[in-house]
Amino acid sequence: AEGQDWDEIFECYKLFDKEGNGVVNFAELRHELNNNGEKLTSTEFHALALDRFVDKDGLFCYEDQIKFLKLREENPAHKKKGGTSIGQWKHLPKNSLNLVEHYRVVNYNVWTYWVAIHGGGASITRKGREIYSEPAKSKLQAVVQLQCWARKELASVRLDKAFLKDFTRSAKGCRETLCTHLVKQVVADGSEQVKAYLKRDNDKRLHKHASFAMSVWKRKKGISSMDRSLALLKAEQNIFSRSSGKIEEAAEGQPLVVEEHTPVILIGSAEEYECTLREERGLQFMKVAKLRKHSASEMTYIYNIPPGFDARENSKDGVYHNSVLIAVNGYPVNSLTFDQTIERITSTRWPLTLRWRRPINLTECFSLIEIATNINGDPLSREETEWRKGGLHGETSDNQEEQNRLMYEEYSDSFKGSSIVKMQILKRRLVRGVTVRLHGSPTMEGGSYLTRLYLTETHFFWEEQDRVDPTVDRNQVASGVTLYELKFITMGKMTENFKKADFKKIPKGMCFSIHFEWEGGSSCIDCEVSDALPPTGNEEAVRNRIRGEHKKDPGEVRADTLCWGLNKIIEEVQSTQLYYDEDGLPKKRRQPKKKLKVLGTE
User: Fold this and answer.
1) CA atoms of 265 and 577, how far apart (whole Å)
2) In a 10 Å sphere around its CB, with 0-12 CB exposed, 13-18 middle and 19+ buried, how is residue 379 labelled?
3) d(CA 99, CA 102)
4) C-alpha count within 13 angstroms, C-beta hemisphere, residue 341
């Protein structure tokens, strides 16, 4: 359609654009052109090539088509001689024409009726009654103009085909020219394929020879090969550098070395578990989950679990509430600060494997009364055993002394190994926590409130707020010290605070004090153990049984058991506290020992 006024075609399309956004419904446009005006055949409609500009929603973008046609017309390679505009309503009206005298004004429906009855030419459409007002175009006129354009496109295509057909039959040497062109194209394509194959084969040979030379060089230098590439190893080292503040230099083929805390006491890892998060699910988890820093240490724990990630509902990759993070993709994080741990999580590639230690439930550990009354511990002293047998006070013969000795040895043998079991069970209870009443602490002078004492492999904690409010995050109101800062335990009312008149009514056997010592100072916390028993319905019978076996009230039995366990823990801590510095001088540790862990040795 050389010489076509594309702005007119654009205006025709706009009459079908109901929303004015540059697109029309393709099905509706096809229906208008095939059923109204000078109806198009399917061949004439396809000559417009409108389907090239139809999207997946069935919308025809006429703006893109008009831009394409204008660019094609400007391209000299597509210009052809001849061709005229098919606009039917471009003629200007004569001068000095008056309404009623020289022309009439009717609406679209009346004019269509007159044409159908009497025949007639094209209508002259205007936006006003005056014939000299701004021209307008009706929908039917737009349909007819698009139909005329379609027929001209089809005629142009048929003319080109006829010309080519006549040219191929009559032009001298045309067939030879086309054949020569095709042969050159085939030869060029073949040459490109041969060059590409030779290049790939050459690269493959070079890579093979380079790999062989590198393996020989590694054997000569004594460097073992690794499955992981050097780039991946360096990326992991950089993550470790940002997380811990230093980088361990690792050459190619060498394992990755990271740092972790050595446990001060052994508790066990029965409550450790892993969850693996791939990218899509991991992004959902990290978007909602809240990782918090423990108020008295650098521990990272999860406080808010997103829906669908609760381990009680999804045991495969779920997480328990208040679980402590201990490793990320095999990298220990217990020696890192909270910010460094978050940096490691955000920098590590997917999938993300997180290792946690979940809290211990009440049903998974014994109470202090159960530990004291049902689990044997260290045997009593020989004097107390003999006193119970009736051989210490009063006259004793040689035979009686020998009999008491044998009975004590038999009594002691029955406890072999049982104190270790009792200690491990008590540690488990202390990890869960023991509720006591606190009477003053290093960070809170005076006051009296219920709190919880609990420990980890490296720290000892107590809470600085009453446990009445269940909505408070207990990890955010905790204070604590490292286990190396535990000094000793005193039973009874030995401190100045306990000697005040306010504490006279508290039984002496239910009180104890935990003393701390750190570099540059010392302090203690005063605790009182409750005398109440769990509500079972026969509390009085249980109390009488405890008094008969231990000669003490339940609160005193609890205090004895707890102090015995804490003293055992202090003994275990002190066995690893002493070390020798670089000068060979003995020193005491104030912080948990750090060790290097080798990763990636597969």
Assistant:
1) 11
2) middle
3) 6
4) 25
Q: How far apart are CA 145 and CA 136, in angstroms?
A: 14
pLDDT score recorded for residue 24: 87
pLDDT (tens digit per residue) in 109-133: 787 778 778 877 667 777 777 777 7
% of the chain residues with pLDDT over 90: 13
Q: Are 320 and 215 a contacting pair, CB within 8 Å?
A: no
Residues in Cβ contact with 314 at an 8 Å cutoff, skipping those fewer than 6 apart: 308
CA angle in degrees (0–180, nearest 5) for 357-359-364:
115
Helices (H), 255-303: 279-288
- 225-232 long-range Cβ contacts below 8 angstroms, 24+ apart: 225/253, 226/252, 226/253, 226/255, 226/600, 227/602, 228/600
Looking at residue 601, what is its pLDDT? 41
Confidence (pTM): 0.54
pLDDT-based confidence at residue 429 (cuts at 50, 70, 90)? very high
487 contacts 517 by C-beta, under 8 angstroms? yes
* Residue 34, amino acid: N
Cα separation, 544 vs 538, whole angstroms: 10
Distance from C-alpha of 46 to C-alpha of 63, rounded to nearest angstrom: 18
Q: Spell out a b/e string for 58-90, using b for 16 or more CB atoms within 10 Å of the CB, else e.
A: ebbbbeebbeebeeeeeeeeeeeeeeeebeeee
3-class SS of residue 348: coil
